[in-house]
């Protein structure tokens, strides 16, 4: 009989009951749906390789300061854990340190809340030095104010906690070591941010057009990056399948090269500590010339997920950036559903696995990058101005007209912003915007 990975490594399999508390205050939140939130928690637990034994929902006017779900429901949860053989309880909402301690002592199982579950998943996914630093910083920032409530689970920090100091209690020593570690991680992260800023400045100087993929987790961003650029990135149908930032070059039909960057996926109630720790990574969206908002068209909660992404982008200061909405996974939608996929501003409906759809998307990207057609009449002896014409974009046509040269140019918007004013006197007519081909509005 084949052994499981937990039997081989000697690890204890997490077997959990998932708990959700629904209050009138939560119901008032625009983006909150109790059923969807609990379904998402199940997906998160499965992503973290937890065996889900069952779910428990409590409707209550307010949260219990001691037990979170109330003593009666805590007794029901204890009976359910004993009956199913569970060793973990995962809560859909964030718990205080006191609530964790009380529940842990009463239930005698590991207590995890939604934030900690997401942090654990990120810890599994982080591969690069930057990602590992960011995750550890977020975990320690989350843990510090809850340290007194962790009890037996404190051992999950591994070797991060130092020994007891003279004249200090163990708790004080732990807190001091965590603060010191947080300070060291912030210093390391600042160095990473400095290097990333240098790379950004280098790309800006070379005039490379930058595109950032953003969206709700499991919307298909990594799949899209792989299909567009043939990047060797991990793709799987699970939440937060990829975490580390990936940038790849993409050659447009006109011959220009751009950089496409895949960013970390968003999720409802994304932990604030995580947003803060990953700000350097998420700021790629702020620095991009164009944001592609990738949307899972097949999701029943599509509208709410789009609003979550809008909120995070606004928090990052990228809300006003030029954006194209990419309705992905249309192969999973009915014809009626596809007709409803519209939004303000430019958009495109695609399946990342269809070549014709990818071509449509690339054309749309190029139209934002080289979006304007202009015609210039320049004296043939003005070699410096003629060279500028070739720098501001793609020359579509050129002909000799007497002592002048006429050029029809599809303008590179970034280059034109820098040097186009030098050609303004030779522009034959007011430019007209070329509509991108395909289904975009």
TrEMBL record:
<dbReference type="InterPro" id="IPR032305">
    <property type="entry name" value="GTP-bd_M"/>
</dbReference>
<comment type="subunit">
    <text>Monomer. Associates with the 50S ribosomal subunit.</text>
</comment>
<keyword id="KW-0342">GTP-binding</keyword>
<dbReference type="GO" id="GO:0043022">
    <property type="term" value="F:ribosome binding"/>
</dbReference>
<keyword id="KW-0175">Coiled coil</keyword>
<comment type="similarity">
    <text>Belongs to the TRAFAC class OBG-HflX-like GTPase superfamily. HflX GTPase family.</text>
</comment>
<feature type="binding site">
    <location>
        <begin position="215"/>
        <end position="222"/>
    </location>
    <ligand>
        <name>GTP</name>
    </ligand>
</feature>
<protein>
    <recommendedName>
        <fullName>GTPase HflX</fullName>
    </recommendedName>
</protein>
<feature type="domain" description="Hflx-type G">
    <location>
        <begin position="209"/>
        <end position="373"/>
    </location>
</feature>
<dbReference type="GO" id="GO:0003924">
    <property type="term" value="F:GTPase activity"/>
</dbReference>
<dbReference type="InterPro" id="IPR006073">
    <property type="entry name" value="GTP-bd"/>
</dbReference>
<keyword id="KW-0963">Cytoplasm</keyword>
<feature type="binding site">
    <location>
        <position position="222"/>
    </location>
    <ligand>
        <name>Mg(2+)</name>
    </ligand>
</feature>
<keyword id="KW-0460">Magnesium</keyword>
<dbReference type="InterPro" id="IPR025121">
    <property type="entry name" value="GTPase_HflX_N"/>
</dbReference>
<keyword id="KW-0479">Metal-binding</keyword>
<feature type="binding site">
    <location>
        <begin position="328"/>
        <end position="331"/>
    </location>
    <ligand>
        <name>GTP</name>
    </ligand>
</feature>
<comment type="function">
    <text>GTPase that associates with the 50S ribosomal subunit and may have a role during protein synthesis or ribosome biogenesis.</text>
</comment>
<feature type="binding site">
    <location>
        <begin position="262"/>
        <end position="265"/>
    </location>
    <ligand>
        <name>GTP</name>
    </ligand>
</feature>
<dbReference type="Pfam" id="PF01926">
    <property type="entry name" value="MMR_HSR1"/>
</dbReference>
<feature type="binding site">
    <location>
        <position position="242"/>
    </location>
    <ligand>
        <name>Mg(2+)</name>
    </ligand>
</feature>
<dbReference type="InterPro" id="IPR016496">
    <property type="entry name" value="GTPase_HflX"/>
</dbReference>
<dbReference type="InterPro" id="IPR027417">
    <property type="entry name" value="P-loop_NTPase"/>
</dbReference>
<dbReference type="GO" id="GO:0005737">
    <property type="term" value="C:cytoplasm"/>
</dbReference>
<feature type="binding site">
    <location>
        <begin position="240"/>
        <end position="244"/>
    </location>
    <ligand>
        <name>GTP</name>
    </ligand>
</feature>
<dbReference type="InterPro" id="IPR042108">
    <property type="entry name" value="GTPase_HflX_N_sf"/>
</dbReference>
<dbReference type="GO" id="GO:0046872">
    <property type="term" value="F:metal ion binding"/>
</dbReference>
<keyword id="KW-0547">Nucleotide-binding</keyword>
<dbReference type="InterPro" id="IPR030394">
    <property type="entry name" value="G_HFLX_dom"/>
</dbReference>
<dbReference type="GO" id="GO:0005525">
    <property type="term" value="F:GTP binding"/>
</dbReference>
<dbReference type="Pfam" id="PF16360">
    <property type="entry name" value="GTP-bdg_M"/>
</dbReference>
<feature type="coiled-coil region">
    <location>
        <begin position="168"/>
        <end position="202"/>
    </location>
</feature>
<dbReference type="Pfam" id="PF13167">
    <property type="entry name" value="GTP-bdg_N"/>
</dbReference>
<feature type="binding site">
    <location>
        <begin position="351"/>
        <end position="353"/>
    </location>
    <ligand>
        <name>GTP</name>
    </ligand>
</feature>
């Amino acid at each position: 009989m084949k052994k499981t990975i937990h039997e081989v490594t000697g690890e204890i399999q997490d077997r959990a009951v998932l708990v959700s508390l629904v209050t009138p205050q939560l119901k008032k939140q625009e983006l909150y749906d109790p059923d969807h939130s609990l379904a998402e928690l199940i997906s998160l637990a499965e992503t973290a390789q937890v065996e889900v034994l069952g779910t428990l929902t409590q409707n209550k006017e307010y949260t219990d300061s001691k037990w979170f779900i109330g003593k009666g429901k805590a007794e029901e949860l204890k009976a359910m854990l004993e009956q199913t053989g569970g060793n973990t309880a995962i809560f859909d909402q964030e718990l205080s340190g006191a609530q964790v301690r009380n529940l842990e002592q009463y239930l005698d199982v590991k207590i995890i809340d939604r934030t900690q579950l997401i942090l654990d998943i990120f810890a599994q996914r982080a591969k690069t030095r930057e990602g590992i630093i960011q995750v550890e910083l977020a975990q320690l920032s989350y843990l510090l104010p809850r340290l007194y409530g962790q009890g037996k689970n404190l051992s999950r920090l591994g070797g991060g906690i130092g020994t007891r100091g003279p004249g200090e209690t163990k708790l004080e020593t732990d807190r001091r070591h965590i603060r010191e570690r947080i300070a060291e991680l912030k210093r390391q992260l600042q160095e990473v941010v400095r290097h990333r800023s240098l790379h950004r400045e280098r790309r800006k100087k070379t005039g490379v057009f930058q595109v950032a993929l953003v969206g709700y987790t499991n919307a298909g961003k990594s799949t899209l990056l792989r299909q567009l650029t043939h990047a060797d990135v991990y793709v799987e149908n699970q939440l937060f399948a990829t975490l580390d930032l990936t940038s790849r070059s993409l050659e447009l039909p006109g011959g220009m090269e751009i950089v496409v960057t895949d960013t970390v996926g968003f999720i409802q109630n994304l932990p604030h500590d995580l947003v803060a720790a990953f700000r350097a990574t998420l700021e790629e969206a702020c620095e991009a010339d164009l944001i592609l908002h990738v949307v899972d068209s097949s999701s029943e909660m599509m509208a709410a997920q789009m609003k979550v992404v809008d909120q995070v982008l606004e928090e990052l200061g990228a809300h006003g950036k030029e954006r194209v909405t990419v309705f992905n996974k249309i192969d999973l939608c009915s014809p009626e559903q596809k007709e409803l996929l519209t939004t303000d501003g430019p958009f495109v409906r695609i399946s990342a696995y269809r070549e014709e759809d990818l071509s449509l998307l690339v054309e749309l990207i190029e139209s934002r990058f080289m979006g304007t057609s202009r015609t210039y009449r320049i004296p043939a002896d003005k070699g410096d101005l003629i060279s500028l014409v070739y720098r501001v974009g793609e020359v579509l046509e050129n002909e000799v007209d007497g002592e002048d040269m006429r050029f029809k140019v599809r303008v590179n918007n970034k280059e034109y912003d820098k040097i186009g004013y030098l050609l303004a006197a030779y522009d034959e007519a007011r430019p007209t915007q070329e509509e991108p081909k395909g289904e975009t509005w």
